[in-house]
Write a structure and sequence with these properties.
The structure is a single chain. 68% of the residues lie in helices and 4% in strands. By secondary structure, the chain is mainly alpha-helical. It has a two-stranded antiparallel ribbon with strand order 1-2. The longest helix has 40 residues.
């Protein structure tokens, strides 16, 4: 499943979709004095340098940013810095991202990936078709003011026409909108925990127990509140509903 998702994402965000030449090989094998010499063509060097950042770019073009930020803000609000651990929160964010992006991934699989495997589409055509569902998702989640910020005075871009919005403009606008939305949701999640912290601190101060860290008392209360209201169900439901 994960291999298919990564392959589809690579098609959607491939070099040809950004206007590069897919005929340029990533590696070149040339005969040398001691045998064959493997080198990197100069035309493909920029794309090889981009590979270490590819996972971050792929996740930035999906729902992962909003989900991950909210989950980590929740842990910060609870006051527990190690539970749930980073690996668990990241895994949950990835699984929820796959669920949210499944309609776009299914469209990419049906209209781009499978035709490409069968030979009905060339790599460039498949990459172009694969990019459309991703851009459509990103445009729906992008605020108009954020998109206008990156469009500027470019009159050739019409936000109502998907094909006229380049990925170089849509991607930063989408990520900016996702961060703003994530912090808005995170504020609403943290607010009840902040009230508990303030109440516990005031009570301990009134009792003269100023040497007792308020976190020791507030953490069990916040966990009790979160479990009582079925917080994980509410939070995940709200995150999925926000898309």
């Amino acid at each position: 499943m994960m291999k298919t998702i990564l392959t589809l994402a690579a098609l959607a965000l491939s070099v040809p979709a950004l206007g590069a030449d897919s005929s340029v090989p990533l590696l070149a094998v040339t005969p040398g004095a001691g045998g064959q010499v493997i080198g990197v063509p100069g035309a493909s060097l920029p794309w090889l340098l981009l590979f270490p950042f590819l996972p971050a770019l792929l996740l930035a073009f999906t729902a992962f940013t909003r989900i991950a930020v909210v989950l980590f803000l929740l842990r910060q609000g609870l006051g527990s810095h190690t539970a749930p651990p980073n690996l668990v929160l990241t895994g949950l964010a990835v699984l929820l991202t796959i669920f949210v992006m499944s309609p776009a991934l299914k469209t990419i699989d049906a209209e781009a990936y499978q035709p490409f495997l069968s030979g009905a589409l060339s790599f460039n055509d498949a990459a172009g078709k694969a990019a459309q569902p991703m851009k459509s998702f990103m445009l729906r989640q992008t605020r108009a003011e954020d998109l206008d910020l990156f469009i500027g005075d470019d009159k050739t871009i019409d936000p109502a026409v998907l094909d006229s919005v380049p990925l170089a403009v849509l991607a930063p606008a989408f990520l900016t909108s996702e961060l703003k939305t994530a912090f808005q949701i995170g504020f609403m999640v943290i607010l009840p925990f902040l009230v508990i912290d303030l109440v516990v601190a005031a009570v301990l101060t009134a009792l003269g127990m100023i040497m007792l860290p308020p976190q020791l008392v507030s953490l069990p209360l916040k966990l009790l509140l979160f479990v009582t209201v079925d917080g994980w169900h509410l939070l995940v439901g709200s995150l999925l509903g926000s898309f």
